[in-house]
Amino acid sequence: MNDLYALFRQSLAGLRVLILATIVLGIAYPLLVTGISLVAFPWQAHGSLVTADGSPTTDPDRAVGSAIIGQIAPEGLFQPRPSAAGDGYDLLSTYGTNYGPEAPELIASITDTQATIAEREGVAVSDIPPDAVTASGSGLDPHISPAYAALQVDRVARANGLDVSTVEDLVADHTEGRTLGTLGEPRVNVLELNLAVLRAARG
């Protein structure tokens, strides 16, 4: 009888800890962090949204996209890297392909994508950088390498009636350096660059 009572007391204590942890860690803490972020970092907390003129906004009705999430671009603009998330940049299906480097499916996908890019940009397959033919781990990467951006400059300039030098300057203006000077690689935000191209085309 004493053993049964002790087991009951232990179970009750465990249940109390579970309920308390759920309230503190599952409800109170997330609400606190969300509240602080909405006050201290409102733009980031609302999804890092940008308007057509490239300015940040917290109004989803004015937004044309997010600075931290890639999206499929029209043919006349800079193209993002491939996406394995759903049908492409699907926020409900964020993942990479998980293929190994020798997977036949990955090799076939890279070969097909190289052929498509080579024809679209009028370049040799050997000139195509790796990020142009491989998806990111999340499938939502909003950036491309400066090399992939440079590969697309001529096509984008022709499609939008701009001088090549103008588009090259836009790429340079939207190239971000390594984080803290050491982390990652230089990168170009595709959405922000495309918005700049459209503004330049409108004069």
Automatic annotation (TrEMBL):
Q: Which residues cross the membrane?
A: 12-32
Q: Name one Pfam family in it.
A: KdpC
Query: Which superkingdom, per the lineage?
Result: Bacteria
- Name the lineage: Bacteria, Bacillati, Actinomycetota, Actinomycetes, Propionibacteriales
NCBIfam families documented for this protein: kdpC
Name-wise, this protein is Potassium-transporting ATPase KdpC subunit
This protein's species is: Nocardioides taihuensis
For this UniProt record, the keywords arranged alphabetically read as follows: ATP-binding, Cell membrane, Ion transport, Membrane, Nucleotide-binding, Potassium, Potassium transport, Transmembrane, Transmembrane helix, Transport
What is known about its subunit structure? Answer: The system is composed of three essential subunits: KdpA, KdpB and KdpC.
State what this protein does.
Part of the high-affinity ATP-driven potassium transport (or Kdp) system, which catalyzes the hydrolysis of ATP coupled with the electrogenic transport of potassium into the cytoplasm. This subunit acts as a catalytic chaperone that increases the ATP-binding affinity of the ATP-hydrolyzing subunit KdpB by the formation of a transient KdpB/KdpC/ATP ternary complex.
UniProt key word Membrane: yes
Q: How does the entry describe its membrane topology?
A: Single-pass membrane protein
Location in the cell reads: Cell membrane
Q: Which family does it belong to?
A: Belongs to the KdpC family.
Question: Its principal location?
Answer: membrane
- Is Ribosomal protein set as a keyword in this record? no
